[in-house]
Write a structure and sequence with these properties.
- By secondary structure, this protein is α+β, with helices and mostly antiparallel strands.
- It has a single domain, classed as FAS1 domain, CATH 2.30.180.10.
- Strands 2-1-7-6-5-4-3 form a seven-stranded mixed beta sheet, with no helix packed on it.
- The longest helix has 21 residues.
- The structure holds 2-acetamido-2-deoxy-beta-D-glucopyranose (3 copies).
- The site of one 2-acetamido-2-deoxy-beta-D-glucopyranose (NAG) has 6 residues, from strand 3 and strand 4.
- The site of one 2-acetamido-2-deoxy-beta-D-glucopyranose has 5 residues, from helix 2.
- This is Fasciclin-like arabinogalactan protein 8.
- It is found in: Cell membrane.
- Its main location: membrane.
Length: 216
């Protein structure tokens, strides 16, 4: 009987090998070689953003030096830091060359924050603008935001899987400091859905109670 399982085991083993080689980069291991980004690296692990970065094939990390991180970490709880750092992970590959060749000099790019389902409008997008004199600036894509961060240097590129570049200051989108954490958001949604189902089961005579539940 055991023999029958052999081809299946071999198949699964091959599949897992493919999975390992398809996602070859490990952001934690890469940044371990750069003590300047040790705080950023530690927060990628604490917030589990490192796992999300490693599971994606085409990605750009905008890293912040320990000095630039201190302003963030001193003031904000981990959930807010997670939201902010996920805005620094671009779902596209930008090496220094591509940054300086942006068509029409400006573009909006999607970030990991957009994938949390927690980012209304342009909140999960970053504006990259090639300013005159070769300076490349970054800011929130929300209209009227300042382009307060700029490209400082290249850290590491593995074309076209992962690019790591340093920027001068954190990108802060309006509203991101007060946005709820993704898990809390889905919990609220789950509660509302449960209450909706209960309301439908018990019928309209309970609609008054349902209103009270939703408000509470
Ligand atoms: C980039 O990713 C592709 C697809 O996941 C993989 O096949 C390739 O080996 C990776 N390249 C490098 C240099 O790691
Ligand atoms: C990534 O690298 C870190 C540090 O070297 C290590 O602790 C971790 O296990 C690695 N993760 C994976 C998925 O290999
Ligand atoms: C990026 O921001 C600048 C400055 O606010 C703005 O002029 C530009 O139109 C924005 N780019 C895009 C693609 O929206």
């Amino acid at each position: 009987m055991m023999g029958a399982f052999y081809p299946l085991n071999l198949f699964l083993f091959t599949l897992s090998l493919v999975a390992i080689t398809a996602h070859a980069h490990n952001i934690t291991a890469i940044l371990d070689g750069f003590p300047d980004y040790s705080v950023y690296n530690s927060f990628l692990s604490q917030t589990k953003l490192a796992d999300e970065i490693n599971s994606r094939e085409t990605i750009t990390c905008l890293v912040l030096s320990n000095g630039a991180m201190s302003a963030l970490t001193a003031k904000h709880p981990l959930t807010v830091i997670k939201n902010i750092l996920s805005l620094h992970v671009l779902l596209d590959y930008y090496d220094p060359q591509k940054l300086h060749q942006i068509s029409k000099g400006t573009t909006l790019t999607t970030t990991l924050y957009q994938t949390t389902g927690n980012a209304p409008g342009n909140l999960g997008f970053v504006n990259i603008t090639d300013l005159q004199g070769g300076k490349v600036a970054f800011g929130s894509a929300i209209p009227g935001s300042k382009l307060d961060s700029s490209y400082t240097k290249s850290v590491k590129q593995i074309p076209y899987n992962i690019s790591i570049i340093e920027i001068s200051a954190p990108i802060i989108a309006p509203g991101i400091l007060t946005a709820p954490a993704p898990s809390h958001c889905s919990e609220v949604l789950r509660n509302i859905m449960l209450k909706t189902v209960l309301c439908e089961i018990f019928g309209h005579e309970f609609s008054g109670i349902y209103q009270v539940f939703v408000v509470s």
